[in-house]
Fold this protein.
Amino acid sequence: MNQQQSITLTNTAVAHFQKMLQSQKKALGIRFGVKNAGCSGMAYVIEFALEIKNDDQKFETAGVQVIVDQKSLSFLKGTEIDCVQQGLNAYLKFNNPNIKGECGCGESFTADEQI
């Protein structure tokens, strides 16, 4: 699968998720998705993947499995996920080429289509 069809993690995101996964021994990886929510219409969903379904897509960066359901993939393909550290705070930043606009808080986005 080429880079534009995949989801990638920066080195800081890999370190962040590796640390999270160490505390969840049953997790197979990190599940990313989108749902209708937020002030701009769509929001990211991040959770531990405890199973892999038939229509899930898997991507791996430095040993961290990223699992995405087929519906969400069209909104996330080509996305790079970064973990940004600002002082004592850290947050995930989605460099998503599929969005058309974001809300001011960065929690939600708009796209050409909805789920």
Observations:
- The beta strands are 8-9, 29-36, 42-49, 57-61, 64-68, 80-86, 89-95, 101-102, 108-110.
- The chain has a mean pLDDT of 85.
- The chain has one domain: 3-99.
